Amino acid sequence: MWLPFIGLLVGILLGLSTGIRVPDAYTSYLSIAVLASLDTLFGGIRAHLEKTFEEKVFITGFFSNIILAAGLAFLGVHLGVDLYLAAVFAFGVRLFNNIAQIRRLLLERWSKRKKKDLSASP
Amino acid sequence: MMKDRMMIFTVITTIIGFMVAVQFQTTKEPDVRDTRTVMELRQELTAEKEKQQELIEELATQEEMLEQLQNTGNVENVIEEAINGLKARAGLTEVSGEGVLIEIRPYFDENYQGGAIRTVPAHLVRMLINELNIYGAKDIAVGSQRIVSTTPIREVQGVTLINSRRMTTFPLQVRVLTDDPEQLHHYMMTSEVKEYLQYENLEFTSAPMTDITVPAYDQSMRVRYMAPVKEES
Questions:
Q1: Cβ-nearest to B23 among A7, A27, A45
Q2: Where are the domains of chain B?
Q3: Cβ atoms of residues B14 and A10 within 8 Å
Q4: Looking at domain B95-214, does it have CATH number 3.40.930.10?
Q5: Residue ranges per structural domain of chain A
Q6: In angstroms, what separates the C-alpha of A76 from chain B's closest C-alpha?
Q7: What does the pLDDT look like over B65-83, one tens digit per residue?
Q8: ipTM of predicted assembly, 2 dp
């Protein structure tokens, strides 16, 4: 359960210690990639809780979302349209939806467990 | 099965963590790139070389003084000489020699409709002094005020103050000492500041002089941000 958090920490430490910097022009791509990956991650957590998780869908979704988002931002820059805003909007809405759904699922589980405990205790 | 899933999540969170850290670093400390051209670099190199040359010369004079101090029994004379030299360099003594006399006076043509001209604008005085320094001026006095390294040139209620003294008399005389008065005169007659003065209805004349006297700085020097060095025994 704690493994993903450790992974996150390791990733952050790795990123900070290597000191890699992206050129200024590409920061928007990276930020959108981060957003896309967060969206996929929360989607995965939600699917895991709903017991509809599929590894292949998750992994392909992760990479294709990142590439799609960065590609969209790139296209936007070259067309002179802020297309990355579309990606930000779409991912943002989905991120919130996913988090809300995760919260509901967790609350449901928690109340179920409580009920079980109450019926088992007397 | 569950273990595999956790591994996948771990890998994904690691990647996310890495990306977040990189993004954080990028936005936190933008890399300041050196965008100077070869020309600018050369200029800087030349300036640094000049500075080095000055330092070397300074070192030579200091060493010479040290030698004098070590060889002569009369230390007082040497010290006094050094102090006098420093005073002269700081602008605390009256100096004379060959130089250029610049006179700034109002200039009206028949179509002039503005009000009276009371003073030379401070930014033009500053510009003039900068140009004089660029073209090799050694000592400068504006009016009766000696320009030293701390001289303030300000504008207060439309009147230019130099060393906190009002500069309202015309013609405003600028006395400049230089090694080559003829050349400085020619530089000044073609300088940009002449043009700028014309926009303000002022004109200047410059004349090379064989003997010109620049007064001493008559106020007490205020030295800030400096402290005597305590010699280690």
A1: A27
A2: 38-68, 95-214
A3: yes
A4: no
A5: 25-119
A6: 20
A7: 888 878 877 778 878 888 8
A8: 0.85
